[in-house]
Design a protein that fits this description.
The complex is a heterodimer of chains A (549) and B (316). Chain A has 19 helices and 22 strands. Chain A is α/β, with parallel strands linked by helices and 549 residues long. The longest helix of chain A is centred in the middle third of the chain and has 17 residues. The chains are: A alpha/beta (549), B alpha/beta (316).
Chain lengths: 549, 316
C-alpha cells in the first residue's frame, strides 16, 4: 500500500548524480526517491504543498556505503576500548583515545573496579603500540591493574594481545619463549605479548573462551546498525563470514524488523566451503534477500597484512628485509577457485594486500575471463594496497574494481614508510589517484573494527594522505579531491557491491537513503573533512537521528 | 598436580597435492587405535562407506572408533571442542593447510597440557618437490614446512624414477640436511608409532631456520641419559634444586618400584610423571632433554643434581 509522499527540504542536497549534482528538495514515497530538484520542481509532490523542513539547516548526501567492514564492530563495544585515537561508540558516545601506558592502565583500572567478582577476566581492545610512540605494553604494566585477575588487551590488528603475569602463570607460558609468538621480555621471561595460534589457544582455553568468537547475538547486529547510523552509513558490509545457520537466521530476523536501520551485505567466506558448496549456498541465501539484506558475494583471502609482514610482496620484498609473507590460498589453487566462481556467475571480493598477491589475483581473473568472458563481473580486489600503475591498468582492462584501504595511510603510513615498503613504495600506498586517473571503479574503506567506521574520516584520509605522525604520503599525486573522495564512499562502493542501481546517489527511483550532515563537506577546508558532524541517517525514507550518549 | 595423561598429537604437513588426504584416508581406514583426525576439506575424505557409522556434516564417526572432524575456518574452535567433548582419543592427528606451517600447529601441543606433541610428518610429492622447493612464488612456503618436521615422507614414489627420487631427497636435504626421509609406498600401511620412534628427540626447541640465529643464541639445550632409575622422593628434591634457567625438561625415565617407563615433563617448576604409552618407550632407561636460557649452568652441574636423584642400587 502506498504511503503519502514526503518532501524533505534541506539546506543543500549533494546527489552524486552527475546529471543533477545539487538540489534542495527530495520527494520520498514507499521508501524510494520520487524526484530530486529545487523547491519549484518538487512542490507538486508535496501533499498540500507542505514540506518536511526538519533538515532545513542540514546537508543531505547519499547514505554512505561501507564496502569493507565486519560484524565484529558490533561485538567489540562490550569491552573497554584502549586505542590511541578517539572513537564513537554505537551509542554515539565519543570514547576518548588513551595515548600513553599510564592512561591505558587508568582506564583498565576503572573497568576492573566495575567487575563484581574477583576472577572474571578483563578483556580490552584497540591497542596499537605504534600510536603511543612504539612502547610495548608489558605484563608488568598490566599487573598494575591486577595481579590476581586475568587481564588481556587485544591489539587493533586482532592478531596480537598483551596479558598480565597471572595469565602467563596459569597457562605456563611465562617461560615458554621457545614457542613462536610468545615474545620474550628484557628479563628472558615472556613479556606478555602473545602472537601465535599456540598461545592464543592455550590462553582462551585457560580463560574459558574467547569473548569475540562466541555466537553472534541480535544485540551485536543492532549495535552494528547503530554504529552505522552514528557515522551516516546506510549500507554496510560484513565482508567475511562463514554464514552458519544461526547467523543467517539472525540476519533474516534483524533485517526484516521494520525499523532496522541499515542495509547489510554479507560476503560468504570461501575458506569454510568448497566452491560447489559455496555456490549452492549463495543460491539458497539469495532466496532470503530483502531490501535490507543482500547476499551474493564470496570473499577469498589470498595473503595476510603488510604491517604484520604476512602480505605477499613482489621483488624486492619488505623494505627492512623481513621474509616474504604468507599465502592463505595456494597460488596454484587460486585460478581454479576463481574460474569456478566466475563461471557460476558469482561476484568475488578478493583480499590482496601485497602486490604479489594482487598479481596472482589478476592472473587468475585474466585466465577466467579468457576461459569464459563474462561482462560486468565486477570482481573486486579488497585492500589492494600496494598495486602499482601497471596493475591498475590490468584491472581496468579486465573489468576489475578496487576497494582501497585509505585509513591505512593514517594508521600505519609511518610503519610503511620506515619498515615495510620504504619511502618510494609507501607513496603509492592505496593509490586512489592512480585508480581515478586510469579509470578503475574504486571505493575506499575502513575494515572496521580494525580502523574506525567513519566514511568521512576515510574520505579525509584519501584527500589528505597524512600519517598519524603528520607525514605526507604521495599526496601530490595520489590524493583525491573532496568530490572524488565522497564518491568513493557512496557511488563507488555501491558499484563494487553491484547495488549502484539502487543506492549510492540521490536520484529518482533509488532507495531514499541519506547521510544527514551538519555541514557541507564540499565547503569545508580539506583538512576539516573528518570533523563534519553527522546528524543521522535516512534509510528507506525513515529518519533516524544518531544517538549521542 | 597430576593431570590425565596428555593425548599424543601428530601433525601432517605438506604442500597442496603432496598426498596428505590419501595418507589420512589410509590412516583412517586401517586404524588400530582410536584416532581423532582434523582435516581441512571434508569433501576429500573417502573412506569405505561400510566404515561410516554417523555423518553429521562436520564430524564423521567410524566403526573402528575413529572420528574425522572438518576444520572449516575455525581450527582452534574445532580443536577446543574436541578436547572439551569428553570423548577420549588415543591420538589426535591434525592436517595442516597446504600453504600452512605445520610447526605452528605443533606448538599448540607443546603448550597445551592436555596434549603432547608426538611428531610432525611432512609429505612431499616425489615428482614435484624439487621444482616446488625452488619455485618463485611458493618456494619459501614449501621450504618453511620442512624447517621443524621430524620426518619427511615421499609420496607418489611409484610415479618417480630412481633419479627423481634422489633429486627429491637432495632438494629436501638442502633445506634440512638432518631430517630422516622415507619413501611412502602405496601398499604399506602408515605406522605412526614407527614414525614417532624414528624421531631423534621428542622435544625439539632448537631452531633450524636461517632466521633463528637469535633464537639459538638465546637458548641452550641439555641432554641427560642414564642407565638406572630415579628414586621418586629424591627426584622431587632434585627438581627443587634445578636452577631457574632450566625452562623445560622432558623425556622418558624409569622410577624404582615401577615396572614400566614413565614420561617426565617439567615446565618452569611444575612437573609430572605419567604412565608412558607404548610409543614413549626409549631404549635408554632415563633419557631427558632440557632447554634453558643461554646462562644455563654447565652440563656437569646439572648432571650432578639429577644424579643425586638416582636410586642407590643403581649407583655403582
Amino acid at each position: 500500500m502506498s504511503q503519502d509522499t514526503v518532501v524533505f527540504a534541506a539546506r543543500k542536497i549533494v546527489t552524486m548524480n552527475p546529471s543533477r549534482p545539487f538540489a534542495t528538495h527530495v520527494a520520498v514515497r514507499d521508501g524510494r526517491i520520487v524526484a530530486v530538484g529545487d523547491e519549484v520542481e518538487i512542490a507538486q509532490f508535496a501533499k498540500g504543498g507542505a514540506f518536511d523542513d526538519r533538515f532545513a539547516d542540514k546537508v543531505l548526501l547519499p547514505g554512505f556505503v561501507e564496502g569493507h567492514s565486519h560484524i565484529m564492530e558490533g561485538m567489540m563495544w562490550s569491552l573497554p576500548y584502549v586505542g590511541a585515537g578517539d572513537r564513537r561508540s554505537p551509542e554515539g558516545k565519543l570514547v576518548a583515545g588513551v595515548g600513553s601506558i599510564d592512561a591505558i592502565v587508568a582506564r583498565l583500572k576503572e573497568a576492573e573496579a566495575a567487575i563484581g567478582d574477583a576472577t572474571t577476566p578483563l578483556f580490552a581492545w584497540g591497542f596499537d603500540p605504534l600510536h603511543i610512540g612504539g612502547r610495548m605494553l608489558t605484563r608488568q604494566d598490566l599487573d598494575r591493574i591486577s595481579t590476581t585477575r586475568p587481564v588481556m588487551v587485544i591489539h587493533a590488528s586482532f592478531h596480537i594481545s598483551n596479558v598480565n603475569t597471572i595469565i602467563l602463570e596459569q597457562t605456563e607460558l611465562l617461560r615458554a619463549t621457545d614457542i613462536s609468538g610468545v615474545v620474550a621480555g628484557a628479563d628472558g621471561l615472556a613479556s606478555g605479548e602473545l602472537q601465535g595460534i599456540a598461545a592464543r589457544f592455550r590462553v582462551f582455553r585457560a580463560l574459558g573462551g574467547n569473548p569475540l568468537s562466541g555466537n553472534l547475538t541480535l544485540a551485536d547486529v543492532m549495535r552494528y546498525a547503530n554504529s552505522a547510523c552514528v557515522q551516516g552509513v546506510t549500507t554496510i558490509t560484513d565482508l567475511h563470514n562463514d554464514l552458519v545457520d544461526q547467523t543467517v537466521d539472525l540476519y533474516r530476523t534483524a533485517t526484516t524488523q521494520p525499523d532496522f536501520g541499515v542495509r547489510l551485505v554479507p560476503a560468504l567466506a570461501s575458506v569454510s566451503h568448497s566452491p560447489e558448496q559455496a555456490i549452492a549456498k549463495i543460491a539458497a541465501l539469495r532466496e532470503s534477500n530483502n531490501d535490507k539484506l543482500h547476499y551474493g558475494i564470496v570473499k577469498l583471502v589470498v595473503d595476510g597484512s603488510i604491517q604484520g609482514f604476512t602480505a605477499r610482496l613482489r621483488w624486492p620484498g619488505y623494505h627492512n628485509g623481513a621474509p616474504n609473507g604468507l599465502w592463505y590460498i595456494a597460488p596454484e589453487q587460486l585460478p581454479q577457485l576463481v574460474e569456478t566462481y566466475h563461471k557460476a556467475g558469482i561476484q568475488l571480493h578478493i583480499h590482496t594486500n601485497g602486490d604479489e598477491a594482487t598479481e596472482l589475483a589478476l592472473d587468475a581473473i585474466e585466465a577466467a575471463q579468457t576461459a569464459m568472458p563474462r561482462p560486468d563481473h565486477r570482481h573486486t580486489l579488497q585492500h589492494c594496497q600496494m598495486a602499482d600503475a601497471a596493475q591498475f591498468r590490468r584491472m581496468k582492462a579486465l573489468g576489475v574494481c578496487a576497494n582501497l584501504f585509505a585509513n591505512h595511510i593514517y594508521y600505519w603510513g609511518d610503519s610503511h614508510y620506515e619498515l615495510t615498503m620504504g619511502p618510494e613504495r609507501a607513496a603509492r600506498l592505496d593509490a586512489t589517484g592512480t585508480a581515478q586517473r586510469i579509470g578503475v571503479p574504486f571505493a575506499i574503506h575502513s575494515d572496521a573494527p580494525v580502523t574506525p567506521l567513519a566514511p568521512l574520516f576515510t574520505a579525509w584520509c584519501a584527500v589528505n594522505r597524512v600519517s598519524s605522525s603528520g607525514r605526507k604520503l604521495g599526496s601530490e599525486i595520489e590524493a583525491l579531491t573532496i568530490e572524488q573522495a565522497l564518491a568513493a564512499v557512496t557511488i563507488g562502493p555501491a558499484h563494487t557491491l553491484k547495488l549502484d542501481g539502487m543506492i549510492g546517489s540521490i536520484e529518482c527511483g533509488k532507495y531514499a537513503d541519506f547521510a544527514v550532515l551538519e555541514d557541507d563537506p564540499l565547503a569545508v577546508a580539506p583538512d576539516k573533512l573528518k570533523d563534519v558532524a553527522v546528524w543521522g541517517t535516512v534509510v528507506g525514507g525513515k529518519v533516524r537521528k544518531a544517538p549521542r550518549a | 598436580m597430576r593431570r590425565a595423561a596428555p593425548i599424543p598429537v601428530t601433525v601432517i604437513g605438506g604442500f597442496l597435492g603432496a598426498g596428505k588426504t590419501t595418507f589420512l584416508n589410509r590412516l583412517l581406514a586401517t586404524a588400530t587405535a582410536r584416532y581423532a583426525v582434523l582435516v581441512n576439506d571434508f569433501g576429500e575424505i573417502n573412506v569405505d562407506a561400510a566404515l561410516i557409522e554417523r555423518h553429521d556434516g562436520t564430524t564423521l564417526s567410524l566403526s573402528n572408533g575413529c572420528v574425522c572432524c572438518s576444520i572449516g575456518s575455525g581450527f582452534l574452535e574445532t580443536l577446543g571442542r574436541l578436547l572439551d567433548g569428553g570423548e577420549r582419543f588415543e591420538r589426535i592427528i591434525i592436517e595442516a593447510s597446504g600453504v600452512g606451517d605445520p610447526w605452528r600447529i605443533a606448538e599448540i601441543a607443546l603448550v597445551e597440557p592436555d596434549l603432547r606433541l608426538d611428531g610432525v610428518i611432512v609429505l612431499a610429492d616425489a615428482t614435484r618437490i624439487t621444482e616446488l622447493i625452488h619455485d618463485r612464488r611458493v618456494g619459501d612456503t614449501v621450504r618453511g614446512q620442512f624447517a621443524k618436521c621430524d620426518v619427511v615422507l615421499l609420496s607418489k614414489s611409484d610415479l618417480a624414477d630412481e633419479a627423481a627420487l634422489q633429486a627429491a631427497r637432495s632438494a629436501i636435504q638442502t633445506v634440512r640436511p638432518d631430517v630422516p626421509i622415507d619413501v611412502l609406498s602405496r601398499d604399506t600401511r602408515p605406522d605412526l608409532l614407527l614414525i614417532a620412534r624414528s624421531r631423534r628427540s621428542r622435544f625439539r626447541a632448537e631452531g633450524v631456520e636461517e632466521d633463528s640465529l637469535d633464537h639459538e643464541k638465546n637458548f641452550k639445550r641439555w641432554t641427560y641419559r642414564r642407565d638406572g632409575a630415579f628414586d621418586r622422593s629424591r627426584l622431587a628434591r632434585a627438581i627443587e634444586a634445578l636452577p631457574p634457567q632450566l625452562l623445560r625438561l622432558k623425556g622418558a625415565c624409569r622410577v624404582s618400584g615401577e615396572v614400566a617407563s614413565l614420561v617426565f615433563q617439567m615446565v618452569s617448576s611444575d612437573w609430572s610423571l605419567l604412565p608412558a604409552t607404548s610409543e614413549d618407550l626409549d631404549p635408554a632407561p632415563i633419557a631427558l632433554v632440557g632447554i634453558g636460557t643461554s646462562d644455563l649452568p654447565s652440563d656437569a652441574d646439572l648432571e650432578a643434581i639429577l644424579d643425586g636423584a638416582l636410586a642407590r642400587s643403581f649407583v655403582s
